[in-house]
Write a structure and sequence with these properties.
By secondary structure, the protein is mainly α. The protein is 89% helix and 0% strand. It contains five helices and no strands. It is flat. The N and C termini lie far apart (49 Å).
């Protein structure tokens, strides 16, 4: 057996293990939800397995089964300049968003005007975009 075939089989087994554990986690969550709400487990278990299973499988694969590869990619790309721009822009945009949220709380407490959530989402994305463009322009 060549290493290419062996690597492909190993990858398929890893993905299969992740899918099985994701479906099991979703089914367990559905069973617990059925017990807590008094619902029918025959309905809750497959619905939760189908809805939660893929997300749980992806998380299990990424965090447990593929952790070595993820760590290798993080160390290999640590010197990537665009990654550093993104990280710096995200940190600064997070600070901008916290300040904006604090101002929004003050405005709501004083004036009673509640800002809609999409306004904060748009402001956060706008702050990140502006910060990234500034970092890119400054370092180019």
């Amino acid at each position: 057996m060549t290493s290419e075939t062996k690597g492909g089989r190993t990858r398929l087994l890893t993905i299969g293990a992740a899918a099985a554990s994701g479906a099991a986690a979703g089914a367990l969550l559905g069973w617990v939800a059925a017990l807590r709400t008094g619902g029918d487990p025959a309905l809750y278990v497959p619905v939760f397995a189908a809805a939660v299973g893929p997300v749980a499988a992806a998380a299990f694969w990424m965090l447990v089964l593929n952790a070595g590869e993820t760590r290798r990619l993080d160390t290999d790309s640590a010197a990537d300049v665009e990654r550093s721009w993104t990280r710096d822009a995200a940190a600064a945009a997070f600070t901008d968003l916290i300040v904006l949220l604090a101002a929004g709380v003050v405005v709501q407490a004083v004036a009673g005007w509640a800002e809609p959530l999409p306004l904060y989402c748009a402001a956060g994305l706008g702050a990140w975009t502006l910060r990234y463009a500034v970092a890119r322009h400054r370092n180019s």
